[in-house]
Each structure stands twice: as C-alpha cells, then as structure tokens.
Amino acid sequence: MHFAQNLWIRVGQVRQILPTLLEAVDIPALYRADERPPPSDRPWILANMVTSVDGATAVDGLSGKLGGDGDKAVFRAVRALADAIVVGAGTAVAENYGPPVLSPDLIATRVASGQTPLPRIVVVSNTLRSFSNFGTRLFTTDGFRPTVITSGAAPPEQVEAMRSVADVEVIGSAEVDLSAMFAKLRADGIMRALVEGGPTLNGHLLAADLLDEVVLTFAPALASGRSNRFAINESATLHQLRLVRVLEADSHLFFRYVRDR
C-alpha cells in the first residue's frame, strides 16, 4: 500500500492539549509569544521537523508528503519568528527551496517587532557537491541571494562560482564548523535561527549540543520505507528535552520541546 497520496489533511480547529486545554488557538501568536532567550555567543536554535508514527521524516524523499494544513500553519508560524532559516544543501535541493514566503500580516508583525520583512536563508554544505548547477529557485529568483556556508573542503573554483549567485562564507577546514557559523550569525544580529534539516545537519547539531528547541509534527500515518530519522550521526548522543506544549488538529499532534539544560 502506498500512503503518500493520502497523507494530506484538511485542518479543522486547532486546539491546545497541554499545558492547559484550549479549544482554539492563534498559531502565529502562540509561537511568537514563546520565550527564546539567545545565549551570548550564538542565536537561540530551534528545529522544525515532521515525522510519521513509525519515525519516517520523508516519503519518496520529500517531507511535505507527511504534512497537511495544520503542519503548514505551524511551519509558517515558526518561520515568521525566525531571523534566519538554516538548511542543509541536500534538503534545500530535494525540497526545491526558494525565497521564504510569508503573508502580509506576518511580515507586518515582523517589521513591527524590529525584524527584517523576511528571514534570511542560510544553506550549509561541506563541499558544495549538492549544487551541480545554479538552476534551482535558490539562485534564480530576482533580487534574492541566499547565504551559503561551506568549508575548506569545497573546491576553490566552486566557491568562486557560487559567489556569483550567493553570499558565500568558508567556515571550518574539513567540514563546516557549526559553532563558529552560529557565532558569526549571532554577530550579524541573528537572535533566533530555525533549522529545517535534514537529518544529517540535525545529527551534527545534536553532537555539538546546539539545539535549544524542537518543534515536531507527529503525523497520523505509517510510511515504512527507508527514511532517515530526525537526526543521524555516527555516534549516538542523549540530550534531555522538556515538553512545553501540545496542539492537536485532525489527529495530527504538534509538540514543542525545549532542551532541558
């Protein structure tokens, strides 16, 4: 049985289950009201992912097939509060990333709170191998230039070619130094950084204990297949999280966890 075509939902009323029961919530206002105090040397770092009941983070290579209207609403709300959206190159290519799109109301809220109208897009790639050409929406949209963070392992000629379509930073020798990268973003005024995967980037963040928050959608579906987990790495790490909130809509659950330090 193939589930991919049946995973979309029509979202009804979104209710809060924890910490208190509320029969209806304003999703953008709810996530924006959360406290996210950044450390002195880096932004507050949160990750937003979706998973099936059996742990799949993608179906046929795409995470969007696991979501639905409720997940989209949370996705937009979390993007709207971020100063920068950080994504691995493989995910950016697979999901056909482009400039962030927000509603006029969310843009107005950002501007009123002192943020830029749209969050900055930061793509992480150790070698730039994921970019065989610059034909994706990331590099072909007029007036938009993403930031690409790479390492000394990337071919110099590829780095120079990339500079024609993106703002490129080389941070780290054999691979991107994530701690140094986030320190640079903090120095640039980024207070909240949203990480959108993929699992390899998430695994490196866990290894460095850099995640402060996880926003996780739990989709009521079984996907099977060989999808990666939320985070993958050569060595396992265990970091305790504290459950802050649970929302529900049409059997989808939306969790907010904070790193218990």
Which key phrases capture this entry?
261 residues; alpha/beta; Dihydrofolate Reductase, subunit A; ten-stranded mixed β-sheet; 25% helix
CATH hierarchy: architecture: 3-Layer(aba) Sandwich
Estimated radius of gyration = 18 Å
**Unreliable segments of 5+ consecutive residues:** 1-11
> Which band does the percent of strand residues land in?
15-25%
Structural class: alpha/beta
Largest sheet data: 10 strands, mixed
> How far is the first residue's CA from the last residue's CA?
43 Å
Number of strands: 10
Q: What average pLDDT do the residues reach?
A: 90
Principal-axis shape equals globular
Write the H/E string, N to C.
EHEHEHHEHEHEHEHEEE
User: What percentage of residues falls in helices of 4 or more residues?
Assistant: 10-25%
What is the top-level CATH class? Alpha Beta
Q: What's the name of the CATH homologous superfamily? A: Dihydrofolate Reductase, subunit A
CATH topology: Dihydrofolate Reductase, subunit A
Query: How many discrete structural domains?
Result: 1
Question: Which strand order spans the largest sheet, edge to edge or round the barrel?
Answer: 1-9-10-8-2-7-3-4-5-6
Describe this structure in words.
The chain is of the alpha/beta class and 261 residues long. The protein has a single domain (15-30, 42-51, 61-251), classed as Dihydrofolate Reductase, subunit A (3-Layer(aba) Sandwich). Helices cover 25% and strands 23% of the residues. The protein has eight helices and ten strands. It has helices at residues 27-33, 69-81, 89-94, 104-112, 137-140, 156-162, 178-187, 199-207; strands at residues 15-18, 44-52, 84-88, 120-124, 147-150, 167-170, 192-195, 213-219, 241-249, 252-259. Strands 1-9-10-8-2-7-3-4-5-6 form a ten-stranded mixed beta sheet, with helices on both faces. Helix 1 runs parallel beside helix 2 (69-81). The chain starts with 14 loop residues before the first strand and ends with a strand. Mean pLDDT is 90; it is low at 1-11.
